[in-house]
Amino acid sequence: MVLESINSPTDLGKLGVDELETLCGEIRSFIVEAVAANSGHLGSNLGAVELTVALHRVFASPRDILLWDTGHQAYVHKILTGRREMFSTLRQGGGLSGYPSRAESVHDWVENSHASTVLSYAHGVSAAVARSSTPDRRVIAVIGDGSMTGGMAFEGLNNLGHSGSRVVVVLNDNGRSYAPTISRLSESLTKIRLHPGLKSVRGRIEERVRDLPAVGNLASRSLQGLYSAVREVIEPPAFFEALGVRYVGPIDGHDIAGMEVALSHAASYDGPIVVHVVTRKGRGYAPAEDDDEKCLHDAAVFDPAVGPGEEQHVLKGYTQAFNEAMIDAGERHPNMVAITAAMPGPTGLLPFAARWPDRFFDVGIAEQTAVTSAAGMAMGGLRPVVAVYSTFFSRAFDQANMDVGLHGLPVVFALDRAGITGPDGASHHGTLDMALCLRIPGMAIFAPSSAQELPVMLDTALGLSGPSAIRFARGGARSVGADAVGAGLNARRVRAGNPGSVCIISVGKMLESAEEAADLLAADGVDVSLWDARVVRPLDPQMIADAGRHDLIVTVEDGVRSGGAGSFVSDAVADLTETRNCPPVLVLGIPTQYIPHGAQDQILSQLGLDGPGIAAAASKALPQRNDLSG
Known about the structure:
The protein is of the alpha/beta class and 630 residues long.
């Protein structure tokens, strides 16, 4: 196998044309096998094979600085930079990260995979390089997979053009993010790429040039200028060049030789230049090419011989419950609208969009715009629901605070993948949303502990006069009967203990672990009361009053414990019991640190947030037991 001979980027220079073609096929097979065994991002990496090979053949990483915007498309980069044998541990605890990782390799610079940031990174890195002892190093920024729809990308592009930074921007245009890209720029690029007039002109010219005697080769070299002129007629004037950034393309992103020529020329340009390459997401693997929704952007474990199958599109757990709740609520609230930032499928909004296309808005990878647009819709009398992953909500905190919160607008935030998410690691854990939402005055915060709680909470949130957030976890959700579902803004008492001893207040999905902890404590002779908080703000005064009668209060959440739900409960207990002794409050949650990737349950266990961990922490903190041990 050719792939087995590639241990660093320098090995690529030894390969001929046929060997390169063989290598690309082997890389695709390798990626399919790795993702099939471990889960991960598939379609984006299959589409970037030739592009990544060409980049490493033209530029000398790590001397030349290769920056990836959407790091989920960097699997090929990892394979070519000596990490092939680590792919058996892809996305596993202690194993290979699914994103670039500075701890893994000197070839990795940017490991945060929140999109649309790389052009600003490139602007800063190039400024540092220009002032260093090696100013000839090249800075290459690879952006694509929908990232050009994000406002920060345009800000970075503007600054590159304004400063004249010596940066090669590689625009990997596959027309998609998770879903087909929503963007006027994307439409313009597609127009350039697919315009029938341009294609027809090119075809006729190339055919006639080939037949010219003696001067055929000379004429061929003149074609690019004519193509540029035709493009200017179709799309005047080029968007990038209006910002001071030179534009080259579009170029076939699966033609290594063509890309090498274009990239080599771009490398010699003394300023910012965009090399627009056209790729096909999922290329070379039929199940990905045939997946109309997301080209197998990501996939769970599957049989590589047949692909993930239809189950890849089946929503599970809380996301499925949200999907169903949105359809039900949409029937009863004709002024309700749904908004997403390039993730209609993963957030469960595709059925809503199909049912009411005029009430659905996909703004592209632009969370800030999603939130402020929702504020405007609420001002006009609509009831917007903004569905976004918890980790991406932090990108729009200012808008949620100033544009929604300050105006007291009835916008509902559906925060999916809250808490520890697992294999995607630090940039994707949703640990900050609770603490952030609690900083927004007047925002109600819901946390369902079962699939059946979610529609009840959505209905309650839609009836409020101000902002609200419903945060729910990734993966499976408990299914419970009607007797285990709360109502309104009330907490639900799960287990009634006698005054004294321990009161556990659980937030969201942590209820199952809290129940296990209560059983373990009871078996050890400790009387326990247990509450499912349901609503973190406003806190149920009955729950707080009951908690204040115990010797110890334990709060359990899967968000950061500093400034989170537990801190909020502690303040409420102190206010309620200020005329008498306040019981100690043990706040259990996520520490303020970056949590690496791994299995969700394993990470929670390591953090002491499983049943045994909660029970042990409570037992250790009990005042009576501490007195006896002293």
